[in-house]
Amino acid sequence: MTALLFVLLLVVLVVIHEFGHFIVAKWWGVRVDEFSVGFGPRLFGWKRRGTEYSFRLLLLGGYVRLYGMEPGQEETPDSFNSRPMIGRVLTIAAGPVMNFLLAIALFWVLFSAIGVPQYVPGPPGIGGLEQGMPAQRAGLRTGDRLIAANGHALRSWNGLLHVVSSADGHPILFTVQRGSRRFDVSLTPKPDPLTHNVRHIGVLPLVQNVQAPLLTGFVKGVQQTWNGAGMLISVIAGSLAHGKAPPVSGIVGIYGAVQQAESAGIAQVLTLAAVLSVNLGLINLVPFPPLDGERLVMLAIEWIRGRRLDPQREAMVNSIGLMILLGLAVVLAYHDIVRMHGTL
Question: What is the CATH number that goes with domain 118-210?
Answer without folding.
Answer: 2.30.42.10
